[in-house]
Amino acid sequence: MKTTLKARLISLLILFSLFLISAFTAIQLNNQIQKTREFNVYQANQEAFVARDRLQEIFSAPNDTPRSSLITESKNFLKTLLESGIIETTVLVDKEGKAVILEGNLKLFFEDEKPYLEEIAKNSAAKWMVAKIDKEHKLVNIFVNFKNPYGYILKLTFSLGNIQKALNAVYLPAIITVIIVITGNIILGILLSIALLSPIKVLNAATKSVAAGNLDLQIKIETKDELEELAGTFNYMTVELKKMKARAENANPLTKLPGNIVIHEEVDKRLAEGKKFVLIYSDLDHFKAFNDKYGVHAGDKAIMMTADIFKEAIAKTGKPDDFIGHEGGDDFLLLTVPERADQLAAYITQEFDKRIRSLYSAEDLARGYIETKGRESDAILKFPIMTISLAGVSNVKREINSYAELTNIAAEVKKAAKKIKGNSKFVMDRRTEDLGATFRGKEAH
Fold first, then answer.
1. CA 216 to chain centroid
2. Where is pLDDT greater, at 4 or 302?
3. In which band, very low, low, confident or very high, does the pLDDT at 210 lie, cut at 50, 70 and 90?
4. Alpha carbon of 306 to those of 253, 297, 333, 418: distances in Å?
């Protein structure tokens, strides 16, 4: 089942609210129990004083007062103590530890209580009260020795902490806390929705729109944080996707290399940035004759092989900022920096001469040429094994202001390169505005 970010956020806020309320209630309840316990201990001491004085008063009656009358009066008094709700049990025991009066709902004595009775009986003058805490039942048992002719001892049992009383005391603070936490989290949820969910929804809708082909879309999110930065990245992405789409549409269908429009943009970009560069323009010598003899499929193989060699040259001896373009047919173009031009050209010409032979028949390789009919006559013409001519043009020694000017110069240099017989070659235009049209050629051997 799909979970939305809003549902997840609400769930987290609910869990956070429950945690805060539970923690606050637990702390308040614990504090209240502690206060109740301290109060009950204080009350127990006070009740013990009152009980001792009252019982001593009862048993100070004349000697001829019947014991039963004293017991009855004492019982009535102990009942009144139970009515306070603090005392759980009142027990009046004799010297043997037997109950004379038992009021309450707890057991009378355990065997381990006898030492307390013996201790208080022996030290009645110095110690009239002994307290024993029952941690298991959260009770305190107070043994009170008072003046009486029968050796009676009073046992009072008190609760250390009353949970119900503590709960009653924390009800109101807990309810207030619940209201505050829920209200606070509602406000927090609204703010988070505005600050997070709304921009995310905008980004989500924009992403779907871009996926549908709307590459002109630009979004605006002003949050002064990472979301605004993400929106900026999104806008940058759409611009780059539009460029990529244009390049893909302009790419050569055979080699997938950038075509004329992208080549033009790349050259203009370097000219605008004032960068020094070398344009290496290529042309396959005798390609048309090869295509006529072996067919279009073989011609495509030759073009793909040339594209692969250009790519390998960049991968092995160039840099990522070097650029390869394919104008169409057998015409390729490479942009690089001046210091890498000779090395790249050397790799291309040498690899081309090695690999192109694999596209010829053994018979033609043995002869060193192919025979095919001329296009304007039926005469059989001889054409050498294909080579590649590279023409280099640079703005290092002369100012070049446009793409058209650059390609015109490259066409001149290519003509000069194709006149050189033999293996593949690279001719670099080293003319300046002050020199005539002189070329210094560099052939690949």
1. 29
2. 302
3. confident
4. 15, 14, 11, 17
User: Per the structure block, which two tokens stand in for 341?
Assistant: 């031009």
Q: Is the dihedral of CA 99, 103, 107, 110 positive or negative?
A: negative
pLDDT in tens, 14-64: 877 778 777 777 787 677 767 776 777 777 788 888 888 888 888 888 888
Determine the length of the chain: 445
Q: Which domains does the chain have, with CATH numbers?
A: 5-161 (3.30.450.20), 166-237 (no CATH), 252-443 (3.30.70.270)
Q: Look up residue 95 and give its two tokens.
A: 């010297």
Contacts for 266 with CB less than 8 Å, ≥ 6 apart: 258, 323, 325, 335
As a whole number of angstroms, the distance between CA 345 and CA 332 comes to 12
Contact 44, 200 (CB under 8 A): no
Strands (E) located in 146-196:
153-159
Q: Are 279 and 393 in contact (CB under 8 A)?
A: yes
Angle at 75 between CA 71 and CA 78, to 5 degrees: 135
Residue with the larger pLDDT of the pair 217 and 127: 217
> What token pair was written down for 147?
């003046």
354-360: long-range contacts (C-beta < 8 A, 24 or more apart)?
355/305, 355/309, 356/302, 356/305, 356/385, 356/386, 356/387, 357/385, 359/290, 359/294, 359/298, 359/301, 359/302, 359/305, 359/386, 360/294, 360/385
Contact 247, 262 (CB under 8 A): yes
What whole-number distance in Å separates Cα of residue 172 and Cα of residue 304? 84
The rounded distance, in Å, linking the Cα atoms of 218 and 189 is: 28
Q: Using DSSP, state whether 132 is helix, strand or coil.
A: strand
For the beta carbon of residue 63, count every other beta carbon within 10 angstroms: 5
Please tell me the predicted confidence (pLDDT) of residue 402: 93
User: Hey, is 108 helix, strand or coil?
Assistant: coil
